[in-house]
Specification:
Strand content: 5-15%
CATH architecture: Orthogonal Bundle
Oligomer: single chain
Largest sheet: 2 strands, antiparallel
Mean pLDDT: 93
Distance between the termini: 9 Å
CATH class: Mainly Alpha
Number of domains: 1
Helix content: over 70%
Structural class: mainly alpha
Strand order of the largest sheet: 1-2
Number of strands: 2
Low-confidence stretches: none
Shape: rod-shaped
Number of helices: 2
Length: 113
């Protein structure tokens, strides 16, 4: 079985796309974890009637509840936007991968005949 140079290039492109997809999925996972943390913090802040503190560097400071809620909501919105953006990229990568994988498979099958 002889694989053409064009098919070899497609295989390399396929491998590169798979690596990029893996990197993208790791980024998505990190953003989703951070989003969960922000959602949990927001839930706790909204439930409490006690004083609120937030960490600034190595110091814990007393904070205004409404200001902390506002900051957390903004961060939640930003992280949600990033996750949605990554999901769009992920779908695009998957479509390209599927198309390229089909092309390579067909070319290899034809080369065997």
């Amino acid at each position: 079985m002889k694989i053409t140079k064009e098919t070899q290039e497609k295989i390399q492109e396929l491998q590169l796309l798979e690596q990029n997809l893996q990197n993208l999925l790791m980024q998505k996972q990190a953003f989703q974890l951070e989003l969960n943390e922000v959602e949990n913090a927001l839930s706790e802040v909204s439930k409490t009637q006690d004083e609120i503190y937030k960490i600034a560097g190595q110091v814990m400071l007393k904070a205004d509840k409404s200001e902390v809620e506002k900051e957390l909501k903004e961060k939640k919105d930003l992280l949600s936007l990033r996750v949605r953006s990554i999901e769009k990229q992920e779908n695009s990568f998957r479509e390209k991968l599927d198309k390229l994988r089909d092309e390579v498979t067909k070319e290899i099958d034809q080369g065997e005949k």
